[in-house]
Amino acid sequence: MKDFNTVLPEHWAANPFAAIGKQWMLITAGDAEKNNAMTASWGGVGILWNRPVAFLFIRPQRYTYEFAENGDTLTACFFSEEYRAALRYCGTHSGRDTDKAAECGLTRITNDSGAIYYEEAQTVLVLKKLYADDLKACGFLNSSLLENYKDGDFHRVYICEIQEVLEKNK
What is the CATH number of domain 4-168? Predict the structure, then answer.
């Protein structure tokens, strides 16, 4: 943690549209012994229930899903462009088959609360789950969006309180 400064969520300088949608993030769940990360480009941040929150979406067939379901803490890790290949790899390979962090040269860190993140990240959102539910076909007001779910594998949405924002020391 010595390479990171803690900032308040409202002082996170990133544009979330660029950080999530264009740069992507690694969602990491699990504990020091067993964990997994997946690349994501869907999600958001905001205020809900008078708390700073992040919204994360994970499909049930993703290996990270079981870790997200069984723990209370997740992280969203953001990297500089030099890690684009690592993010691509983590989005196209399963942690069931390989140690993705090792394959990509990423170094896991565990903070005092047990959250897993990566030394190479530029920014980390340490998150505590507040709410989870599955998206449902009947909830879509624009039915053309259902083309994202041809197999019926609706994402589970996790609404998480942002416990810490860690920014890499420059």
Answer: 2.30.110.10
